[in-house]
Design brief:
Blueprint: H1 3-17, H2 22-28, H3 33-46, H4 66-73
Helix pairs in contact: 1-3, 2-3
Length: about 70
């Protein structure tokens, strides 16, 4: 996870424990209340994995086949 995603997890964890309100969390994350509410819902349903970027770990759609890459490099 990136540092940005880890910060989101930390803030949402504080909301879950009752230390922060969602409005304060939105200000800390520099998001609108509506976006913070969307993140909070995903955090409750999926957990910390829900705040991770969706395409993380997947190959790029624009990547070329390995056969072509090898031929270009040689």
């Amino acid at each position: 996870m990136s540092s940005h995603e880890l910060e989101r997890v930390e803030v949402m964890g504080r909301v879950a424990s009752g230390d922060l309100k969602l409005t304060t969390a939105a200000i800390l994350l520099e998001l609108s209340y509506r976006q913070a509410k969307r993140l909070w819902r995903r955090y409750r349903q999926v957990g910390r994995k829900g705040l991770k970027y969706g395409n993380a770990g997947r190959p790029s759609n624009r990547s070329k086949p390995m056969k072509l890459r090898r031929r270009v490099l040689t």
